[in-house]
Amino acid sequence: MLFLVLAIIFGSLGCSAPQLKRGRLVNEFNIQKKISPEERRIAVCVEEFTTAKSISDPHVIGDARVGVFNVHSEIRSEDPTQLVLANELKRAFLLAGFKIGEKGKSDIIVSGQIERFWVDENIGGITENAKASVRYDIIVKDKEGRFVWGKSIERRKVSGKSIDATKDNIPTLMDALRKSIESIFEDESFWNAIKR
User: Fold this and answer.
1) How would DSSP label each residue in 93-114?
2) How many Å apart are CA 186 and CA 39, to the nearest integer?
3) Residues 6 or more apart from 146 whose CB is under 8 A from it?
4) pLDDT, position 12
5) Of the candidate ranges 9-18, 107-116, 142-151, the one whose mean pLDDT is the lowest
6) Strand locations in the chain (E)
7) pLDDT of residue 159 exceeding 70
């Protein structure tokens, strides 16, 4: 009996939180509206976003509950959240028909501030689920630095219930990020501002 108790304790201590690895993170974007091939391709420079003061470490993106005793464990990202968002925005702009360019040679500059990039677990009885929230302000300027378009973007995602939601943390956060980016390209005011 003592051996079983010790095995459970050491087993729960050995469990660790998932980590957001470097690379292509979001599944394919569903971007319906795009620049047509006949239109002039607009060059976009996506700068790294800043982070709000509430984000003390841009590599910490969540709180997992691991092991038998649901011990709190930091979920970390190999890249800071600013770089994660910038890279995924670049992919989305490419899919929408834009070119990615350098700051001095681009038609528009995209920047902003990340307010929240977080996932944690909700425990209710014997089941858990992952809850993710992504919130940021996006600002689009022309090459002269004049404001063209801006918006506060926020998306939340909750995973299905399971016995251990730790495996759902990263996918749920990436789904919230994907939906937030897709919402930019679904916004008619964005397209109207860009094509002016």
Assistant:
1) HHHTTPEE--GGG-SEEEEEEE
2) 19
3) none
4) 43
5) 9-18
6) 19-20, 43-46, 50-51, 60-66, 71-77, 99-100, 108-124, 127-142, 147-158
7) yes
Tell me the whole-structure pTM to 2 decimals. Answer: 0.86
Report pLDDT digits (tens) over 41-83. 899 999 999 999 999 999 999 988 776 666 778 899 999 999 9
148: left (phi over 0), alpha (psi -120 to 50) or beta: alpha
Residue 151: C-alpha distances to residues 28, 58, 139, 157, 195 (Å): 23, 22, 7, 20, 17
Handedness of CA 39, 45, 46, 49 (dihedral sign): negative
Q: How far apart are CA 139 and CA 113, in angstroms?
A: 9
d(CA 185, CA 9): 49
Look at the block and give the residue holding tokens 């979920």: 75
Burial 47-71 (b: 16+ CB within 10 A, else e): ebbebeeebeebbbbbebbbbeebe
26 token code pair: 């979001």
Residues in the chain: 196
* Domain range annotation of the chain: 2-194
Question: Domain 2-194, what architecture?
Answer: 3-Layer(aba) Sandwich (3.40)
CA angle 110, 175, 120 (to 5 degrees): 105
